[in-house]
Structure formats: C-alpha cells, structure tokens
Amino acid sequence: MTAMSKTIVAILLLCISCWACSKGTAANGSQQPNGVVATQSANGELKYKVPEGWVVEKPSSSMRVAQYKLPKAAGDSEDASLVLYYFGQGQGGGTQANIDRWINQMHQPDGSPPSSKAKSETLTVNGLKVTTVDAVGTYSAEMTPGSGNFSSNDNYRLRGAVVETPKGSYFVKLVGPAKTVEQWNAAFDSYVKSFEFK
C-alpha cells in the first residue's frame, strides 16, 4: 500500500469514528443513555401553580407572562400586585443587578440605606437557581418605563425572585401594602417553590 493510500484510509477511519461519536449526542447538547453528560433543553417553559385566592389578570404587556391581583388585607386601602416577567433569552439584566434595583426602590424613612431593611437568599427549586429578595419601606418606582413619574407609597413591602432557566431568566415581583403582602407571604413562597422548567 502506498503512502497516499495509507493516508486516505486513515482519514476515512477518522471520519467514521467522528460520525459514530456524534450519533450519541442529541441536538440539545445532552448525550443519550450511553453518555454521562446531560443538560436541560432550552425548548421548555416555566411551569408553576397559582395559589388559591390570587386573581388572574390579563397581562398589560407582552413582557408579562402572568399578572395577578392579591386582594387587600383588612385595613389596607390597596390590593397587592404580582407580575411574572420574561424578556427573552439573555434579556432583562443579571440576577444581582435586578435584586439591587428592587432593593433600591424601597426607601427608608430614616434615611438609612435601602439594603438595611432587605433580605436576599439563593435556593434551588426543582433544579433551578432562584434568588429572592424581601424588602420594606417607601416604595418608589417609575410608574411607566421612561415616563419620569415615580410612585411613592409608604409602608410597602416588595418580594421578588429571579428564576434562572435554560431559556433565560424569569422575574417575579410582588409589591403592595406591607400588611397585605404579609397576608400572602406564605402563598408567595409556595408559588416560587412550585417553579419547574419542562
């Protein structure tokens, strides 16, 4: 066999070997049962269970996956509002940037830093990394993005969560009078712990 023939045979064997290896890998990057690597597909959706008592509302924009009214507690003048946002793969900003932004929307009457009355934690929910925040104070946020008009609501509470999925992050924001948010606090925890990506 000539040197040229040996080279051609070697190339053919290499091609066959590469083709055989590639057959064990699925389109989403995970390997079939004979492999050891597995990653979630980005083709799924975030699934969750809506707590009893929450009033489902029609989302007011395409960036809102879901929107709810949480009926007010006795003595409060307003209902609380919870919105689940999804802006697209890689959109909406990083986890910590959103947590910090939410905390800074809760001003403290005594002038102390907003972070002094805020708690944040990271947990794993059905394989998803979830970072939560809980803050109280005077809620001040832009009423409509880009409007320059800000709300100012005393004795409010904000609970938020950033849910990291293979499709990108989802953002949960609950805000309302402190007493009303406390009334729905356990329901919020249950909602967050129901998240699944499939």
SSE layout and pairing:
Layout lengths: L2 H20 L23 E2 L7 E3 L6 E7 L9 E7 L8 H9 L2 E2 L10 E8 L2 E12 L13 E13 L2 E10 H6 L1 H9 L2 E2 L1
* Main sheet properties: 8 strands, antiparallel
Please report the total strand number as a whole number.
Answer: 10
CATH class identity of the largest domain:
Alpha Beta
What is the approximate shape?
Answer: globular
Helices and strands, in order, run as HEEEEHEEEEEHHE
**Low-confidence regions:** 7-40
Average of pLDDT: 82
Number of helices: 4
CATH architecture of the largest domain: 3-Layer(aba) Sandwich
User: What is the fourth-level CATH superfamily of the largest domain?
Assistant: Mog1/PsbP, alpha/beta/alpha sandwich
Domain module count:
2
C-alpha end-to-end distance = 55 Å
- Derived structural class: alpha+beta
Can you offer a commentary on this structure?
- The chain is an alpha+beta fold.
- It has 2 domains: 1-39, no CATH class; 46-197, Protein Transport Mog1p, Chain A (3-Layer(aba) Sandwich), CATH 3.40.1000.10.
- Helices cover 22% and strands 33% of the residues.
- It is built from 4 helices and 10 strands; from the N terminus they run αββββαβββββααβ.
- The protein has helices at 3-22, 95-103, 178-183, 185-193, and strands at 46-47, 55-57, 64-70, 80-86, 106-107, 118-125, 128-139, 153-165, 168-177, 196-197.
- β8 and β9 (168-177) form a beta hairpin.
- It is globular, with a radius of gyration of 24 Å.
- The model is unreliable at 7-40 (pLDDT under 50).
